[in-house]
Structure formats: structure tokens, C-alpha cells
Design brief:
The complex is a heterodimer of chains A (292) and B (220).
Chain A lengths: L4 H11 L3 H13 L3 H20 L15 H10 L7 H18 L3 E3 L9 H13 L3 H21 L4 H4 L5 H15 L4 H13 L17 H20 L8 H14 L16 H9 L7
Helix pairs in contact in A: 1-2, 2-3, 2-7, 3-7, 4-5, 5-6, 5-11, 6-9, 6-11, 7-9, 9-10, 9-11, 10-11, 10-12
Chain B lengths: L9 E3 L3 H18 L3 E9 H10 L1 H9 L12 H7 L3 E6 L8 E9 L4 E10 L2 E7 L2 E5 L5 E7 L4 H11 L4 E8 L5 E8 L5 H8 L4 E7 L4
Helix pairs in contact in B: 1-3
Classes of the chains: A mainly alpha (292), B alpha+beta (220).
The structure holds iron/sulfur cluster (SF4).
Chain lengths: 292, 220
């Protein structure tokens, strides 16, 4: 069992086990599950992520009409060979937005860590698999890395926008994806946790201010930004660059920032983007927003 | 927090609290009724009322009543399915004094006339809390096999329940007692680590002073 990133690292070093192994064994212990049972559950999460990625429907709109169709635009842009960011990053962005839209359209997704932020981790992992190749087992290990980081964040800060703002949702997802990506690219423990710390640091203070209180604007597009932030952070960490603030301190900072955030910026739809003139106009056009 | 609360659950979007949690609320309420729902009056409160439509909270609650789980593809079509099955569904605003922002009250009538009134909260990440049953305060998640015994508030009922469970080798994870007033109606909520066998439940229903027993196997 572990309660901090430092404890995962400590157990990993002391027992000569990989980061993912420490996380997996703690899951086995806490649920009294066999190794096979734990890995099968994680493989199932990966399978649902893949199925959800394939099941994207570009024509579908959400109940409010606020989301749908943007993933198709990115796909067309990527296909047209105009991709500014390179193939891998282009696909990461496309997949993240598609998954966010699928969620808004009541399709089946894996909350990772939440439904609003469900696009970040699969976008990074599935695009990595496509671009660089990775065996299923490695992807499952990467999900354990992500989950371990997320669990520490959830237990010491929050993974809910209503408690910690969007830094807790897209921010956590981004930190989790960054650690997982660093692992897939052959990074050691230091690279994994530095990638996570760097990703989270860049998301600190992010407000949860969804228009009409719905998980759509800005959530869907933020998945893409969170995913790209994960790739950037992993690359910086893989180069050997360290976060000057330790991962556990970054997480604690997130907790304190979340506590100091006003309620209007924590999933109430009562501040930030949600109360902008544009948002008011959008809400007038749809019958399902708060107060509409 | 379990690992698969962080990567997971598998669910139909868009919101773990307003959609997945709402399906769970409907599911647990339906199981507590213990038979097929014929009429459902669903009252929403707070953010459920304000943003429920856009989050599909209405569809999610009905889907749960129909026995669907949070990852069911049919959640988006639940209202039509209920109509086809001649289930009367009515929505309204819950008038609660002070409640969690994501609260729903479900007043259900079953096929054979059983009724139940459940107030439940979606507390985040798809997790729920059953806050009231038939007007009596409760506090449980629905994740464990749960036994709910309504009885007269008189001595002996607690030990009858616990010794039945011990006899069936069922370990108690948590136990809560509530009552309307001294000597009135009481509710016992027992969350268990193992499933309670049907004959144990059957036995309880025949104990004198026990008014109603509901059980469901937990975890969805
Ligand atoms: S803005 Fe709020 S609801 Fe949207 S993804 Fe961020 S935390 Fe979730």
C-alpha cells in the first residue's frame, strides 16, 4: 500500500519492483484479487477505451447541441497533410476531442479519472501504440502507472471538479497520462514521476467553469490540451529535466489551490467561462442549460 | 479509494455524478422496491434539477429503474423503453429543506402494489448515498450486499438479524440503526461482505415485529 508518490518510489526501489508493479500489487491486496484478476480488469479498461475510440460518430450531436463533429474536422485536417505538430501529436489531439465528444453524446467511455476528462489518457496511449507500437501488456502496465498517480492525487488532493476545479480533472488526467507515456517510452521512475509533476504544475489553478453546468464547453476541447500537455511533459522529463517541485508537493499545492478556489469556479456553472456573454448566448439557443 | 475508481468505471457519458450516479440511484431504488416498477414519480433537486436534462439525468434514473447499469448502451433510450413497457414516469421538483446538490427522490409503485420512497444523493465519481427510505434517514452506498429491515422499535431485533447473519457465515461490514421515534418504526441497514442467502432473508420476513425486509446484492 502507498499513500504518496514518494512511497511508491520507495517500495519500488526497496523491493526491486517496477512502478506499475507496486501499484498493481497494492490493488491485488486491497481487493483481495489475484494477479490475473487485477490485470484482466485493467485490460478490460483498455479494451473499452479502444472500442470507444473506434465507435466515434462524427455526425452525432449532444442533447444540448453544444458538442459534436469537431473530431471529424481534426481528422480531416490531419488527413490533408497540413498537420503542424507531426503525426503522433496530431492523432493525440484528434482522439482526445473525439472521446470527449462521445462522452457528451452519451456513448460508452472509461472515466479516467472522470467522464469529463475521459479523452486524455486513451488519446495518448492509443496514439502511442499506433505510432510507435507497444504490446498489450505494456499498455496495461502504463495504465497501472497512470492509475497509481491518479490514486495518489485523489487521496491527497482531489480528482473531482466540484471539489478542486478542472486542475483536478483534466489536470490529473494529464499528469496520469504523462507518467504513463514516460513509462512506455522507456523512462525510469524519475522520468515517470517528473513527467507527472511537470504536467500537473502546468494545470494548477485551472477553473471548472462549464457552460450551463454541462460537461461540454470547455471540457471536450480541454481533453486535447490536457493530452498535449502530457506529451510535452513526458518529453521534457525523458530528456532528464527535473521538476524543481517534488511530485507530492505539486499534488499538495493542487489541494491547497482547490481549497482556496471560490465555489463559482468549481462545477457550479456560475463563474468563469460559464457566465461570459458567449455562454449566455449559447444557453439561449439550447433548452437544457441552467436557468434556460 | 480503489484503483478502478481512478481508471474506471466504464460508463455512458456525459457525467459520472449526473449520469452514472443517477443510473445507480435508479437501480438501487428499483431493487429496494423489490419488484417491477409500474409507476415512478421522480423529483429532482439542486444541480440535478438545473442541469439534469443536458446530462441525461432523467434518462439515467429511468434506465436504472429498468435494471440497466451505468455502462448500458440503451440508457439514452430509456424513456421510450419505459413507455413501451407501460411504466408511468412523471418528473418534478423535489422540495427538500436541505440536501446534497445532486439529489433525487423516487416514489415508486410496483406491479403488485408495493411502494417505496427513496431519497438518494450522487456524491461524485458515480458513487451514491441512499439518504432516506420511506422518510427514515439512512446512509449507505449500495456497493455492498445490503440488507434493510424495517421493524417495530422493540428489543431483540438487532440480535435476531446479527445471529441469522452469523449463522449463515456472513460478515457485517457496517450496521446502522434509525428510527422515526421511540417505540415507532425502525430501520436497520446492514452492509455485508458476503451475499445473504435467500432462506435467511425469507426467515427474517417471518419474524414477529419485522414489517418489511429488502435486500439487494450490491455493487453495480
Ligand atoms: S471544466 Fe469541469 S466539468 Fe469540464 S472537464 Fe473540467 S472539471 Fe470536468
Amino acid at each position: 500500500m502507498y499513500g504518496s508518490i514518494a512511497e511508491i518510489l520507495e517500495q519500488s526501489e526497496k523491493n526491486g519492483k517496477a512502478f506499475w508493479e507496486v501499484v498493481m500489487e497494492a490493488d491485488m491486496e486491497s481487493r483481495d484479487a489475484s494477479r490475473d484478476a487485477s490485470r484482466q480488469t485493467m485490460a478490460q479498461m483498455l479494451a473499452v477505451m479502444k472500442a470507444a475510440d473506434r465507435a466515434y460518430e462524427g455526425e452525432r450531436k449532444s442533447a444540448s447541441g453544444l458538442s459534436g463533429g469537431d473530431g471529424k474536422l481534426l481528422e480531416a485536417y490531419n488527413r490533408a497533410g497540413k498537420n503542424l505538430c507531426g503525426e503522433f501529436l496530431g492523432k493525440v489531439m484528434e482522439r482526445a476531442i473525439k472521446m470527449g465528444e462521445s462522452n457528451a453524446c452519451m456513448k460508452r467511455i472509461v472515466a479516467a479519472p472522470t467522464a469529463g476528462s475521459c479523452g486524455v489518457i486513451p488519446a495518448v496511449l492509443l496514439s502511442y501504440e499506433e505510432a510507435f507500437g507497444a504490446p498489450e501488456d505494456e499498455l496495461v502496465n502504463a495504465l497501472y502507472v497512470a492509475a497509481g498517480i491518479g490514486k495518489v492525487i485523489g487521496e491527497n488532493a482531489s480528482i473531482s471538479g466540484a471539489f478542486g476545479g478542472c486542475q483536478a480533472e483534466i489536470g490529473s488526467a494529464s499528469a496520469m497520462a504523462a507518467g504513463a507515456l514516460a513509462y512506455l517510452q522507456g523512462g525510469d521512475n524519475a522520468a515517470i514521476v517528473n513527467a507527472a509533476a511537470l504536467a500537473l504544475k502546468n494545470m494548477l489553478g485551472l477553473a471548472c467553469d462549464p457552460v450551463g453546468g454541462l460537461v461540454e464547453v470547455p471540457c471536450v476541447k480541454r481533453n486535447s490540451h490536457g493530452a498535449v500537455n502530457a506529451v510535452t511533459s513526458a518529453q521534457i522529463a525523458l530528456a532528464g529535466i527535473k521538476s524543481a517541485i517534488s511530485p507530492d508537493d505539486v499534488i499538495d499545492s493542487m489541494r491547497r489551490i482547490g481549497n482556496e478556489m471560490p465555489a463559482s469556479l468549481k462545477e457550479t456553472g456560475k463563474g468563469g467561462l460559464a457566465t461570459s456573454e458567449s455562454a449566455k448566448r449559447l444557453c439561449e439557443c439550447t433548452a437544457v442549460c441552467v436557468g434556460a | 479509494m480503489e484503483l478502478f475508481d481512478v481508471i474506471g468505471p466504464v460508463m455512458v457519458g456525459p457525467s459520472s455524478s449526473h449520469t452514472a450516479g443517477a443510473v445507480r440511484i435508479g437501480y438501487v431504488a428499483g431493487r429496494l422496491l423489490g419488484e417491477k416498477v409500474k409507476e415512478a414519480k421522480i423529483l429532482l433537486y439542486g444541480s440535478f434539477l438545473d442541469t439534469g436534462k443536458g446530462h441525461g439525468t432523467d434518462k439515467a434514473l429511468v434506465a436504472g429503474l429498468l435494471g440497466m447499469k451505468p455502462d448500458d448502451y440503451q440508457i439514452a433510450n430509456s424513456l421510450e423503453i419505459a413507455q413501451r413497457e407501460n411504466i408511468l414516469v412523471e418528473f418534478g421538483e423535489a422540495r427538500l429543506a436541505e440536501a446534497h446538490p445532486n439529489t433525487a427522490e423516487l416514489i415508486l409503485v410496483g406491479e403488485s402494489g408495493n411502494t417505496i420512497d427513496v431519497v438518494a444523493e450522487s456524491v461524485g465519481g458515480g458513487k451514491i448515498n441512499i439518504a432516506k427510505i420511506d422518510g427514515i434517514e439512512t446512509n449507505f452506498s449500495g456497493e455492498y450486499p445490503t440488507l434493510i429491515v424495517h421493524n417495530q422499535d422493540q428489543p431483540g431485533h438487532v440480535s435476531e438479524v446479527t445471529s441469522m447473519l452469523a449463522h449463515k457465515s456472513v460478515n457485517i461490514a457496517s450496521m446502522q440503526l434509525y428510527r422515526s421515534y421511540r417505540g415507532g418504526r425502525a430501520v436497520m441497514v446492514v452492509e455485508c461482505d458476503q451475499e445473504v442467502p435467500p432462506d435467511g432473508i425469507e426467515w427474517l420476513t417471518r419474524v414477529e415485529g419485522v414489517l418489511k425486509v429488502t435486500y439487494f446484492e450490491g455493487t453495480i
